Structures are given as structure tokens and as C-alpha cells.
Amino acid sequence: MAQSVPLQQTKFKRFLVRHRDALMATVILGPMLSWWMVVSGFPTLFGFGLGFFDWVGIQAHPKFTGFDNFIRFFKDPMYYEALWRSIWLGALVAVTTLLAGFGAALLMNMPIFGKGIYRSIWYIPAVTSTVATTQIFNFFLDPTNGVINNFLKSIGHDPIIWQFSVPWSVFWIVVYSVWKGVGGAALIWLAGLQSVDATLYEAAEIDGAGKWGKLKYVTIPGLKPIATFIVITSLIGAIQIYEQVMFITGGGPYGKTEVLVFRIYRDAFWDFNLGMAGASSLVMAAIVFIATSLYYRKSMREDRSNTIPIKKRGK
């Protein structure tokens, strides 16, 4: 009996040593995961579960309806058209932001004086309040006293009521979204640019490659790992576009810029149709998950095909 206690202590110490990293990760991440489950995880699962119930009004009792809300989602043009707008408008915002961010990153990577301040200026829009900046943006677009319309009047042009034009509404949503997101995209691209081995540029220069050749054969292939991350995160964020639509166009004109997240917000907090809000959220989450998974698998497959070693021939 006296020898069993030291033996148990020895086993416990071996367990601690063997699983030290796992225990340390549990201690560090445990409180964060618990907090996430309380604040985000459980509400998200609860919201998804609402999609299987008919629940209109806070005081009403939820009634299980199975897949009725999902069937209505794909039959009612109000929902699947909002989903389609989220896809093409989000894709337009994502592509434009990524291209503008890549161009800005190339400029940031140049050896110029005061590049730290220059990089900070690019990132300022990303940390500013969307509510405040959209109100300033709307001040410029005011149909009567807006800065842009006043300029148009000064050159003899009729003022434009931006909010009544679908193309102009889409244009300003994209402009604001790019202005807001280009700084973050540029910094991530910049991190990728600085991770490319400098000796590859030297080798390309020796082989006679110019600036375009270095960009095409060294820079772009070297950015593939960071490109996978930034494209996936940009797609997720772009499909969930909401604040720009909410504060710039309000879904107008005539609902032509109403995206799916804005439709979910209206169902949940204006009409209190919690069942349809939950069903729409689950559909959007499934589409985002499938799209990002397919893109990630495609990227990993291409990377593996480019790095497979040549098999040695048999003797």
C-alpha cells in the first residue's frame, strides 16, 4: 500500500509530461471556447434550429413544420433573389477589393520614404465605424445638397438622385465596400509579398526576367498560400454583406439591392418571422461552407499536383 502512492504519482507525472502541450492548450483555449459557446455558439445553433419551426411573433408558440420554411425559401422569389444578389454583389465586391488590395500591396512593398505612415493611412478605413462613415458617405450623395450633386450643378449638369437608380446604388455600395476593405486586404497581400524568397527574384533577374516576368513567374506563384486564405475570408465576408446596404440604400430602390442578410434582419427584427430568419441563415451558412470547402480542396489539389516528386525509375 505504501508503494502504490509513489507509483501513482509517477504515472501522473508521466501523464503530465506526455500531454503537456495538450493540457497547456486546454488551459489557454478552454475559457475562450466556453465564452464563444455562450456568446456565439449556442445562439447560432439556436438560430439554425428555428428554421424548422413556424414562429411568428415573440409571444407566439413555435410550431414544428419540418422543411416547410426551406421549401418556401426556394419557392418565394423574395428570398432566392436576395440570395442571388448576395452572391453576385458579394463576388463583385470581393474581386474588386482583392485586386485593389493587391495593387496597394505592391505600392506598399516599394522602398519609399515614410512607408509606415503610408501603410497606416491605407488601413484607417478598416478600423473606422461603418455607421459613421456611411452617414458621411450619404452626405456626399444627398440629392439636394450633396457634395457630388453640387459639383454637377456647378458644371451645368442635372443632379442625380442616386437612391432611385439601381446601377448607381450598386456602384456606390461597391465603392464604399472597396474603400472599407482595401486596407485589410492590402496588408495581408503585403505579408505574402514579403514572405517570397528574395533569391528567387535574383535568379529570375539573372535569367533575363523583367518586372512583369518577376510578377508572373515569382510573385504570383509565391502568393498561392496566402491567396487561399484571403480569397476564402473575402468570399465569406462578401456574401454576408449587410451594413453597406443597410445604411446606404436600405435595400432600395424597390428592393433591388436587398441582400440575404438584410432580408434575414427584416424577417427577424421587423416582421418577427423567426422561423424564416433561421431557415435563411442556415441556407446561407450551408452555401458559404460548401463554396469555401470546394475552393480550399481545389487549391490544395493544385498545390499537391505541383509538389509531387518525380518517381524514380525502376532499375
Task: Give a short summary of the structure.
By secondary structure, the chain is mainly alpha-helical.
Integer average pLDDT: 83
In this structure, how is the largest beta sheet organized? 2 strands, antiparallel
CATH superfamily of the largest domain: MetI-like
Q: What is the CATH top level name of the largest domain? A: Mainly Alpha
Give, in order, the helices and strands. HHEEHHHHHHHHHHHH
Q: Provide the CATH architecture of the largest domain.
A: Orthogonal Bundle
Which oligomerization state do the chains in this entry correspond to? single chain
Query: How many distinct beta strands?
Result: 2
Specify Rg, calculated over alpha carbons.
26 Å
Strand order of the largest sheet: 1-2
The count of helical stretches stands at: 14
Structural class of the helix and strand makeup?
Answer: mainly alpha
Q: Runs with pLDDT <50, length 5+?
A: 308-315
Shape: globular
Proportion of beta-strand residues: under 5%
CATH topology of the largest domain: MetI-like fold
Q: Span between N and C termini?
A: 64 Å
Family: Belongs to the binding-protein-dependent transport system permease family.
Transmembrane segments: 21-38, 87-108, 120-140, 160-179, 222-242, 274-296
Organism: Cohnella yongneupensis
Domain ABC transmembrane type-1: 83-295
